[in-house]
Amino acid sequence: MPRKVWSERYEGGSPEAEQRLFEGYARDILRVQLKYKKKTGSSVIERASHAKLLLGVANALLRVSPEIPEGFQVGHFQPGKDYAVTIRFSNASGACHPDSLRDLRGAAIRIRISDQQSQDLFVANYPTAHVRNAHQFIAFSKALSGSSILFIPRLVLHLGPFRALRTAANLLKATRRSVRSLALESYWSRGPILWGDAGPVRYLLRPAANAPAAPKPPSSQGEYLREEMAARLRQGDVAFDLYLQPFVSDWSTPIENFAASWKEKVSRPILVGTLTVEESERLAAEAEERLAATGSTDGRAEEILGSLEERVVAAEARAAEAEARVAAFQDELEGEGSSYRHRLGMTAAGRKLAAPAAVEVQDDPQLDLRVALAKSLRAPLRRASGLTLTLQGAIESSEGRAALRQLSSSLRRLDQVAADLSDVQRLVDGTVPISVRRTDLAALLATTIDEASNLEDRLVRLDAHEVTERVDPVRVRQIVEGMLDAAKERTRNGAAIVVRVREGEAGPVVTVEDDSRVPATIGPELTLAVRLAELLGTELTVDGSTYRLPLPKGEAPG
User: Fold this and answer.
1) Chain centroid to CA 294: how far?
2) I want to staple 117 with a disulfide (CB 3.0 to 4.6 A). Which of 106, 113, 138, 273 is the partner?
3) Within 10 A of 236 (CB to CB), how many other CB atoms are there?
4) Residue ranges with strand state E in 101-253
């Protein structure tokens, strides 16, 4: 495939300037979320856009086309490959409105390449975005988050009269058509992405050619899109073809203007795969039907939540069984002193080591059993996670949503435990992958605290300066969760716990401090957190009643 000449323009003139601008945009979105929280009276912070979930599934399938052109065989997109996919269909508004109101519909798609790698795609059911770039999107979101009466004046204030009029006209044009079924819509990416040597592409989803028609939508029913999709899934699979539109020229396929259409007669769509929501997602559809049939979410939702809780309890029991086998494995490794420290040659004082060398792995029936248990544990966890996604769009009360968020957080932690059970050998010998990326540590800590499922009876406060650093956010979150768990275990109900992040001379420092007068210690419950800190090239320590995690500045350890 001949390569087209293309160029990327950085907002602000350089990658560093653009990064600073986007960090500001992230803060703006957080403020928009707070406005929606105040506007709706919710007790929790919701999404700034695409708040109303229409369907969430965790076991969809992407099959790469066996005939994918060679030029588009990039990374994991290889002929005939299959990947598990999580999909969230939603209305675009930042508030939950009836489906009969004018709105865009979108889908967030996560392709799971491996336990450590995924690819996210986002699409909406109109060929172009209503704004040209990120700056205009933030301005539009700010204007939309306030009073609807002042929407146009605020948009004019942020964008100027001409751009405000064009943006409003684009949105009206994009939402003027009624939607009969999510399964019959085509969905386009909002902008292009880089597709290896093939260059920039836009991607789109089209419904399968044999998709059954849908009835005319009712004029007033608030949940008809969810109900129609649930009924369709009970009858069979829902499939979409995935296409790519390659870059042709700056004039006909502009990269920096999201509001410009890439005409198909100029950039012919190339079929690269098929995305299928399988009929086996029956349980989620039945849950939605039961919720819709009640006319309210109180009774049936509680029944379904109870069923989910039973699944979580069963998963926790299986996790405990797996942990017992891991404990036996650790006892064999332990010899004299702590298993991790003995294996890695750490001193009794627990000083930081250089990167540990890999060790030869022997065949071990207990390891095989542990991996099998971990894999069997993850399937029901992901199933339950998919159901929580489905229920989030159906439960109206803030208390119910808060309970679902905590349940979802517990499922996420259990899923990570299962993944670490599979990887315990690599955790021990230091070869587990560390995925470092630029991370807003204050936002990461806020999310960790907000989604903590076991701190309701503690007064947890975040005292965070604006700190951004290259870290592995998943592992840092695990360590902080361990620190919070340890702080809870050593304090009484109603105790105060303060989480801080500060920029130190050698890098950021995260601390968790409680109000207990008894000095903290690093006990067995923090073994995993200690090991993860070592893999990040640092050391988890205590100072009085404070757990302290310094994070290295810059690149990944190794």
Assistant:
1) 31
2) 113
3) 12
4) 105-112, 118-124, 187-189, 193-194, 200-207, 238-246
Maximum CA extent, the chain: 75
Please give the Cα distance from 174 to 4 (Å, whole number): 30
Residue with tokens 């250089």: 354
Q: What is the pTM of this model?
A: 0.51
Phi, psi dihedral angles at 53 (to 5 degrees): -80, 130
The CA distances from residue 255 to 147, 160, 176, in Å, are: 33, 23, 26
DSSP state of 148: G
Question: Does 92 score more than 90 pLDDT?
Answer: no
Listed in sequence order, the residues at least 6 apart from 543 whose beta carbon sits closer than 8 Å to its beta carbon are none
Using alpha carbons, select from 46, 173, 176, 57 the residue that is nearest to residue 107: 57
User: Is pLDDT at 543 greater than 80 in this prediction?
Assistant: yes
State the residue for tokens 């999310």.
447
Whether the CB-CB separation of 515 and 491 falls below 8 Å is answered with yes
Run of H or E residues at 384? helix 365-392
**Alpha helices (runs of H) in 134-209, residue ranges in sequence order:** 134-145, 151-159, 161-174
Alpha helices by DSSP H, listed for 423-555, are 424-429, 441-450, 473-489, 527-535
User: In the predicted model, is pLDDT for residue 347 greater than 90?
Assistant: no
d(CA 427, CA 436): 17
pLDDT at 293 over 90: no
pLDDT the model gives residue 431: 84
Q: Which amino acid is at 492?
A: R
What is the architecture, at CATH level 2, of domain 437-550? 2-Layer Sandwich (3.30)
Residue matched to tokens 């920029």: 503
Sheet holding 508-514, edge to edge: 459-464, 496-503, 508-514, 546-550, 541-543
* Residue 356 near residue 430, CB atoms below 8 Å: yes
Query: Percent of the chain beyond pLDDT 90?
Result: 17
| CA dist., res. 67 & res. 270, Å (int) | 10
Delimit the domains of the chain by residue range.
15-281, 300-429, 437-550
Tell how strand 459-464 and strand 496-503 pair up: parallel
Q: Please, is 499 exposed, middle or buried when counting C-beta atoms within 10 Å of its C-beta (0-12, 13-18, 19+)?
A: buried
109-147, pLDDT tens digit by residue? 999 988 788 889 999 888 888 788 888 888 888 887 777
Task: Calculate the alpha carbon distances from 446 to 21, 107, 450 in Å.
Answer: 21, 26, 6
